[in-house]
Amino acid sequence: MVNHPHHYHVEVEWTGNLGTGTDGYRNYSRDHVIRIAGKAELAGSSDPTFRGDATRHNPEDMLVTALSTCHMLSYLHMATVAGVVVTAYTDAAEGTMVTEGDGGRFAEVVLRPVVTISAASDPAKAEAAHEVAHHACFIANSVNFPVRCEPRTVVASD
């Protein structure tokens, strides 16, 4: 297998200087802007638990989002390869993070995709595509904590 490197460039700018910089833990905002060329900016902050703005995206949400969307995109491909026609896909993913000392880590992420397939599609193949997709997901392969998948398949009544 040949390695094909892919590079991703992101710019992050902290916008939370309230006038005195970081001269005290409560004296600055965690707000920042995430920029990726050619894409809409993302308004970022920290989790509200860590003095962040709840209306902005935080790194923890984005990590869970990355795992969920990577699985979805891998799954759609694997379902297509298996001859399964997917007509709808939703996921209610949930991540669990634990704090330790001054930091923390994710303990796990659970994906809960609900996949609707056409009546002519094989539900067993639809279920099996999740396992193949999980092993193909670049993001799941890059984290050091468990990513579990608890899928549910719905067969459409065509």
Keywords:
alpha/beta, GMP Synthetase, Chain A, domain 3, three-stranded mixed beta sheet, 9 strands, 23% helix, elongated
General description of the model:
- The protein has 158 residues and is an alpha/beta fold.
- It has two domains: 11-50, no CATH class; 59-155, K homology (KH) domain (GMP Synthetase, Chain A, domain 3), CATH 3.30.300.
- The protein has two helices and nine strands; from the N terminus they run βββαββββαββ.
- The chain has helices spanning 59-81, 123-136, and strands spanning 11-14, 32-35, 42-44, 86-91, 94-100, 103-111, 113-117, 147-149, 152-155.
- The strands form three sheets. The protein has a three-stranded antiparallel sheet, with no helix packed on it. Strands 4-7-9 form a three-stranded mixed sheet, covered by helices on one side.
- β5 and β6 form a beta hairpin.
- α1 (59-81) crosses α2.
- It is elongated, with a radius of gyration of 19 Å.
- The relative contact order is 0.14.
- The mean pLDDT is 94.
Give unreliable regions as ranges: none
Q: Provide the number of structural domains.
A: 2
Instruction: Specify the biggest β-sheet.
Output: 3 strands, antiparallel
User: Overall pLDDT, averaged?
Assistant: 94
CATH fold descriptor of the largest domain: GMP Synthetase, Chain A, domain 3
Strand order of the largest sheet: 1-2-3
Shape: elongated
CATH class of the largest domain: Alpha Beta
What percentage of residues falls in helices of 4 or more residues? 10-25%
**What is the correct CATH architecture of the largest domain?**
2-Layer Sandwich
Query: Which structural class do the helices and strands define?
Result: alpha/beta
Distance between the termini: 41 Å
What series of H and E elements makes up the topology?
Answer: EEEHEEEEHEE
InterPro entries: KH_dom-like_a/b (IPR015946), OsmC/Ohr_fam (IPR003718), OsmC/Ohrsf (IPR036102), OsmC_Ohr_Peroxiredoxin (IPR052707)
Protein name: Peroxiredoxin
